[in-house]
């Protein structure tokens, strides 16, 4: 008995904002498994900014080809297996792609999700999102207690964890986000020292006011003119963690360059990019660190779940609009 | 008997290219020495791009005040002393300023120039210029043998040493300079693997052709669009050493920002500034390393000497025009 597999494939590369028109649905047969492979029924898709890069051009991974399933991290349950390490019923985190069923092998770096861990947590605080926050902050940003840490996209999945990790380290933390409600969440619920609504406030003036001793660490998720305002106010030996540039992804061919990069010279600053996959061998360390803070109630997080595989393109678009809270997931199946 | 001291002081802060109109001459009396001070007769002034920053705004040092002597490194001979560490006749490297006589104290970090070392060498390969090349390359750039190193301002005092140090480390070295004659000097005399004349050639296309495996280390003296072309072609884990941005100093309020900084993310690159004064406690190490290569004939260097204190403003202007070779010095007195 053959199984149907509904997929969302790439129809066209976006030249500006991403939307439904760049994708199409397709139904194929699930192929027979080869030795070493196992079949996963997708339960959740992780909707991440990096997908915008993957469907646009070669980056740290080759671009998704036209007609191919959209690359995506996600979580699911094993339904059939010819791999001795995974049995039917196991829950697994892997690159499932935007489809109902994924054929997975060891090369896809599948990770079992232990009993007792919610799938939505496995895809957020314990997943790539939380690890990006943890390793980007601790390994690239390297804040010391008392230093001032600024994070953009602060109400997002990664940014909100970054700020709370920095608070736990004893830093002064200022978040930049896109609405008054988000800013209130950051300061009232998450314990940020200050928050700046970049859609309503003068970011430069507010950074000056909220960071009187300059900015020691900037965790940048957005790029663009906000990065430039931060560079104008860096402290000596500041560290700029380049995690993303979500404000620029729709228009990389005419992207914004920050003129204030020259301040890196006189202030002996460092601006450094990273890709979380490089830290995969150390994820255990990150999961333990984040898990301990979570258990102490020092990390709170939000998840927005959207229903149905077909809503994935819209969900990706929403990431760039910013009208969601915390981690954005698509639920493909209930179990 | 009082002594006259001719000085060049700052008249106005340059808003664009620097020129004579921003300076004026003045003659004052040499004051009596206090305990701990000594008097130096200036022999040479070191003409460095950083002076352009000092007379413009507060940078890593406070801006030179209007009416004050222009800050400048230089070398001279001690003529009077109330400091037990320096006696008349001693040759010394310190911040003499643009003047015939300088009153110096320990806080000015004077360094004796040992017998047998030419003053012009003390101010170039063994001076701040050579140390900038050595510490910037080895501590910030950290090239490994076989890596590709690109340097801009390659025929300049610092750039030419950077390239030769990188060659000595076994790197592939590409220089960017402003004339065919300079490029020929780099490849024929200094052993650079390739040189690009940015005034006559397509820098991007030539970088692609001369750096087939991408750029591992970029030692940047110029900033601007050339930095952007390099960022388009960085290899994985590239290191951009921000030493200067001479193309931007005349127009910092409308400086150029490099849009390709986003490549630092996917290629895990690092862009880092430094100020050579931070390495002052380690200069001995740098002098020994450069000295050993000099003795082996692995480092060649050029000096352009201009005569007379009054020519200092013009000499500073020439730095930004680039019509000199190697280190630019002003000879204020013969002995």
Give me the secondary-structure topology.
Two copies of one chain form a homodimer.
Chain A: E1 4-10, E2 23-29, E3 38-46, H1 50-54, E4 74-81, E5 91-94, E6 101-104, E7 111-112, H2 119-122, H3 128-141, E8 148-152, H4 157-168, E9 172-177, H5 180-189, E10 194-197, H6 203-210, E11 215-220, H7 224-231, E12 234-242, H8 263-266, E13 270-273, H9 283-295, E14 303-307, H10 312-321, E15 327-331
Parallel strand pairs in A: 8-9, 8-11, 9-10, 11-12, 12-13, 14-15
Antiparallel strand pairs in A: 1-2, 3-4, 3-6, 3-15, 4-5, 5-7
CATH architecture of the largest domain in chain A: Alpha-Beta Complex
Quaternary assembly? homodimer
Helix content of chain A: 25-40%
CA gyration radius of chain A, whole angstroms = 20 Å
How large is the share of residues in beta strands of chain A?
A: 25-35%
Give the biggest sheet of chain A: 7 strands, mixed
Order of helices and strands of chain A: EEEHEEEEHHEHEHEHEHEHEHEHE
Instruction: Pick out the low-confidence regions of chain A.
Output: none
General shape of chain A: globular
CATH fold annotation of the largest domain in chain A: Quinone Oxidoreductase, Chain A, domain 1
Question: Could you characterize what this model shows?
Answer:
The structure is a homodimer of 335-residue chains. With 335 residues, chain A is α/β, with parallel strands linked by helices. Helix content of chain A is 26%, strand content 25%. The two termini of chain A are 21 Å apart. In chain A, the strands form three sheets. In chain A, strands 3, 4, 5, 6, 7, 14 and 15 form a seven-stranded mixed sheet that branches. In chain A, strands 10-9-8-11-12-13 form a six-stranded parallel sheet, with helices on both faces. Chain A has a two-stranded antiparallel ribbon with strand order 1-2. Chain A has helices at residues 50-54, 119-122, 128-141, 157-168, 180-189, 203-210, 224-231, 263-266, 283-295, 312-321, and strands at 4-10, 23-29, 38-46, 74-81, 91-94, 101-104, 111-112, 148-152, 172-177, 194-197, 215-220, 234-242, 270-273, 303-307, 327-331. The first copy, chain A, is built from ten helices and 15 strands. Chain A folds into two domains: 4-124 and 301-331, Medium-chain alcohol dehydrogenases, catalytic domain (Quinone Oxidoreductase, Chain A, domain 1, Alpha-Beta Complex), CATH 3.90.180.10; 128-277, Rossmann fold (3-Layer(aba) Sandwich). In chain A, helix 3 (128-141) packs across helix 9 (283-295). The longest helix of chain A has 14 residues, at 128-141. The interface between A and B is medium-sized, with 34 and 34 residues. Strand 13 of chain A pairs antiparallel with strand 13 of chain B, so a sheet runs across the interface.
